Amino acid sequence: MTITVLDTYPAIREILRSPHADRAALLQAMLAPAADMYRYFPGEVDLVAMHAMSSGFPLDRDEQRCLDALESLRQADAWGRIERALHRAVGVQLAATPGITVPDLTVLIVLGDPGDAHFMGPSLGMNANGSMSGYIYLNFWPYPENLARLEATAVHELNHNLRYSPGGVIWDPATVTVGEQIVSEGLADAFARQLYGDELGYARLGVPHLGDDAVFAKVVTGLEITGMQNFTAWVHGDEAAARYGATPVGLPAGAGYAVGNRLVDAYLAATGQTAAEALLADRRAVIDTALAAAK
């Protein structure tokens, strides 16, 4: 397998320095090598529109602020650190589960939008997706906390990628449960923590509610809800649900991450497995084991 971390630094810099009329075409060209991550979307995907929807850097404002932030990512060696972290993590994972399929990986790193209040606030300047086999998308604003967690964030998304690659867990958007995504977030955090420790390995979004029993109890009531369109509030919280047109359910930001960590930690403690060994653990087994241990 190969890991290709697209060198988006010079392309982003060129886009931000170019005349406004040229920027969309330049962005389209930058994103094209990762376009297949949207292969299951109906119809042709507008990559530039998808970039904006995902809180990617703007094409019509904040140029200097974005250029300064881009330099912060470069100075932090974001591209190199992420590539090295992914190689290391694949090695750890294959040592634990040698029979899994590891696809060739294409990694797209972009700068976020400083004018997006939700991205910069509740989302803590980070937006990532590793659920599409063969692709990892990482969108950062270089808050110091995010720069410290570049490696952990990348291997969190790698864990998702390997869980849902061919031969792994099947993700059917119509029938998948809230519980599956919450377990997957817990497993991905546990893998990042296995490699980088608790201080860096936890996704920041879930940390404030790790010990919140009321949040835990509420999320547990939604674990069997099906259909991806219903997940945002249960996993990311009400603010994210409102942002993306979903129905709030009374949960704070990162609720699903917090609960996923608790469920997975209980499962790992009960089974004696490492996070890497539990990559393909059945979500039902994780939930049942964890809830039984909590009684």
UniProtKB/TrEMBL annotation:
Residues 102-287 form the DUF2268 domain. It holds the Pfam family DUF2268. InterPro entries: DUF2268 (IPR018728). It comes from the Bacteria. This is Uncharacterized protein YjaZ.
